[in-house]
Amino acid sequence: MKLWQKFIYIALCVIVILPITACNDNQESAAGERVVPPERQFTFWIRQGDDHYPDYGDNPAVKYLETLPYGTDEKGNGKYIDLSFVVPVSGSEADNFNTLIATGDYMDVMDLTAYSGKALDLYNEGIALDITEYVEDYMPNYRAFLDAHPDLKATATNVIDGEKRFIQIYSYEDDTPEPWGGYEYRRDWIVKYGKNPVDGSSFSGAYVTINEDGSPNVDSWQDNVVFPSGGSDPVYISDWEWMFGIFDIALEDLGITDGYGMSLYYPGFFGAGDLVCAFGGGNPSWFKTADNQIVDGSTSEGFRVYLQAMSTWYKNGWIDRAFPEHTADAFYSIDSNNIFQGKVGLWYGYSSQLGGRMANPDDPYLNGYVSFSAAQPINDIYGSENEKFKTPFAMYQGSLEGPSYIVTKSAEEKDLEALFTYIDFLYTEEGGALKTFGLSKDQYEVTRDRFMTELGFTEGAYSKVVEDGESRYKVHQNVFDSGWDGAIKLLRSPGLNLNSLRSASSYHKNYVTSLKRWTQYENTGWLYGSILGQLSEEDSKTYAKVFTQIYEFQTKNVPAFIKGTKDPFGDEDWNAFVNALNKYGPDRVTIILQSLVDKLYSD
With 0-12 CB in 10 A as exposed, 13-18 as middle and 19+ as buried, what is 327? Predict the structure, then answer.
């Protein structure tokens, strides 16, 4: 072939090849696989992967998501993406994150849960992108969720140079997450030793459902218990005190000399607000009211009235005499030996302790054991009208706000339309179902995922059922029982968890009812990371320093009020406590937080 002919041949080849490269969304490799261009290959740094497979990219939901187009290009072709994940070695999450940030080797999207700093810091360093225009242009579902939740919308943006800008994307729950624990009490003791407060008659109760093996269903307990407030569940502080009187009878009858009516966290209070919130609604630290006012609860009248109630309970012998000694115990496992031995009437425990799960017919203290959950009580006895009959709104509870993610400058030159369209899909019901439940039967058929096939999940993870006139997601029993359900969901990703659409039919009605008691009141008073994460560096240091000083002061001094060494009813001891605590300057933090909240919640 002559030289000029070779040039023409090469030119013709280039002309033929170029159109194929330009629309390579539809191009396939020799193996028949779709070829995704580099600008649509996105890397994610996630704090935790899954032990069931070495690469989080093997997650069945990830594989399915890669089969979907996210928008179309200028020629109308589907825009497919490729997702890859970097997961640090367990125990090295924070170090790995900080190393990547320091070296500039960060991924396109990064989970901030292992980062001790703030998204604003990473934005100011030029690492996190201002993603406002992409959220506004390509994330209608995300914005619709925020519009439906004004409190979350107010904190989803950061105030930068006086403007509200998106610099991170939050995962959210569409409803309060299923709780793992809360206050619970010995219902069997109430039945056995209690009397109807109206007519003095005895109570009775029994399991009403029997399992195939002849054993009782541990969640099927039914009884005719009536509390002084008139219902079958405790509502008020007076209901709790009625229970404590019954627990005294039970402990004496069973010969339990080292038991008690209620366990109490070693500082004498729970900083998140549990039980403290019964006395006015707030907690013993800073909290936000419904009208967006910041209140310092550390020296509030509500906290004082709480201490008055606890000192009364301690004097009556209803509280563990040795509560300050359990300094190594978490709030959810206080003096667990006594609890698991059946020697405590009311405690903060796990869902795994509900119903008859801890019953042991061979143990006199656990024979006939039945535990019921209790909602946060409402004060109807102590203090003034300002501390009575107030709905609790600041207590430990799962938040609708989940982890947040930044998009880094590593992705700056990539197809951000495709990326943000993909992320927005995860805030639709279909995308949320992948995150919450896994793949449907039809979605499984698209990928025929080997992992799910080997596990026998060929019918998908769930089916749609109708409950209370609404379509819900019922996880298939083999998936539910396997313990592998988390491995087929998209847990490690931005998106929306569909708690409100979760079928309750996998659980016994009594168990579901117990969980709902723990979320009977909504926690609206906490200052979550989306608020505190927007403090300036100087204000953040002030907040952390003062918070630590006050908590340490409370921990050292509060037990004295409960044990009777100091008198919470007397002004002298209380005023001395307030004056000493105020030396740490809580008002400075109140002003800082109020100023920030005013900015965030302004129109």
Answer: exposed
